[in-house]
Amino acid sequence: MHTQDFPQLASIEAIEQGFESFGYICSPKIATAVFLAFQLRKPILVEGPPGVGKTELAKTTAMLLDVPLIRLQCYEGLDEAKALYEWKYGKQLLYTQVLKEKLGDLLQGAQGLAESVERLHQFGDTFYSEEFLEPRPLLKAMQQERGAILLIDEVDKSDYEFESLLLEILSDYQVSIPEIGTVQARVTPMVFLTSNNTRDISDALKRRCLHLYIPFPSVELEERIVLSRVPDIDQQLRHQLVEFVHSLRDLDLKKSPAISETIDWARSLLLLHARELDAQVIQSTLNVLLKFEDDINTAESALRELLPRPAHG
């Protein structure tokens, strides 16, 4: 990907404005990391707690650039066949049946065993041509004519062996397929790797990438995010609900509310015509914010301390 082809990423300000036009309100730190990753053509490793917008960052970048988002969801045991490529065995089998039926025609007129084998070899190579290749996300991203955003999601859930494969791919953006040869990226994709820090990422992979840690946003930034997604909500209620969510995140919970859950809660309060936060409306809608019964019980126990103080005036 070249700068002249994508003026949307030509400056930090352009990135912030472009993201905002798609409803992704980001800090200057995030916009700077995206700018540098694009200019330096380096992958960006995005770490942080679940629900802070790591995956959404890659999706929004793809929308901003109007290029495909190709996502590889990582999991334990992920291997080359699922990440890079595999062969279309069903199609190869069908081709074998056709070849078997035409074997007589194929060998007609062949002089001796050597010539017969040579004719068969000419057709044998076809079985391992690009026609029979099934590209998986890593290879598919390298095949895009205009480039792509490659999202390697939750890389911390994969094995260290898979990290070794990634290092090989991300060093030169090419892959060696024994039956075909070396396949190079038509256009170098922009790569986002996300991690929820469930395990340490290898130093080698970290060195290959720019690092970006996204924490939960400040009250002010989260208010801007809610405003962009739920513009009809009252300003005072918006401030109260964001403050309350931040208070919840300070509790000892199994799963703190994500930004998407703050937005869902704002929409819920709007549907319920709530004017301000009180104990009743909070208790009846806590299940929008919290996904574990233990967390709901913890929040209800602390509700008196968490309730917004009444305004004086």
Automatic annotation (TrEMBL):
<dbReference type="Pfam" id="PF07728">
    <property type="entry name" value="AAA_5"/>
</dbReference>
<protein>
    <submittedName>
        <fullName>ATPase</fullName>
    </submittedName>
</protein>
<dbReference type="GO" id="GO:0005524">
    <property type="term" value="F:ATP binding"/>
</dbReference>
<dbReference type="InterPro" id="IPR050764">
    <property type="entry name" value="CbbQ/NirQ/NorQ/GpvN"/>
</dbReference>
<dbReference type="InterPro" id="IPR011704">
    <property type="entry name" value="ATPase_dyneun-rel_AAA"/>
</dbReference>
<dbReference type="InterPro" id="IPR003593">
    <property type="entry name" value="AAA+_ATPase"/>
</dbReference>
<dbReference type="InterPro" id="IPR027417">
    <property type="entry name" value="P-loop_NTPase"/>
</dbReference>
<dbReference type="GO" id="GO:0016887">
    <property type="term" value="F:ATP hydrolysis activity"/>
</dbReference>
<feature type="domain" description="AAA+ ATPase">
    <location>
        <begin position="40"/>
        <end position="218"/>
    </location>
</feature>
